[in-house]
Amino acid sequence: MAYALAMDNPNVRADVVEVQEFPILAQRYMISGVPKTVINNKVQFVGAVPEQTLMDYVLKAVGADAKEQPSKVQVAPEVGPTTRAGSGR
After folding, report:
1. For the whole prediction, is pTM greater than 0.70?
2. What count of Cα atoms within 13 Å lies in the side-chain half-sphere of residue 48?
3. CA distances from 8 to 35, 39, 54, 67 (A)
């Protein structure tokens, strides 16, 4: 579904990473199960979800109101590449 969104909207990008080939990325994004989805480094969830639930997560990540927020949305800690000076990464 993420790829379908990316194909339909130039503002959306979807990437898939094989965590066994990129263990540093797996560690950075705290992968404990697959599939794991991280949206804008703000919202994350593990497992396959229905299309409507994915859309609710996307809306949550961009700060838009959805008619009903999914109950298991977790706000991700700061993950992913950092551009902060002196971060040591």
Report:
1. no
2. 2
3. 22, 17, 15, 23
82 within a domain of the structure (yes/no): no
Instruction: Give, in degrees to the nearest 5, the angle at Cα 62 between 69 and 78.
Output: 100
Total domains, the chain: 1
Rounded CA separation 9/23 (Å): 30
| 86 inside domain | no
Q: Which domain holds residue 18?
A: 2-75
Query: Domain with 62 in it: what CATH number?
Result: 3.40.30.10
3-state secondary structure 5-48: HHHHCCCCCCCCCCCCCCHHHHHHCCCCCCCEEEECCCEEEECC
pLDDT tens digits, residue range 13-51?
Answer: 999 999 999 999 999 999 988 999 999 999 999 999 999
pLDDT in tens, 56-67: 999 999 998 655
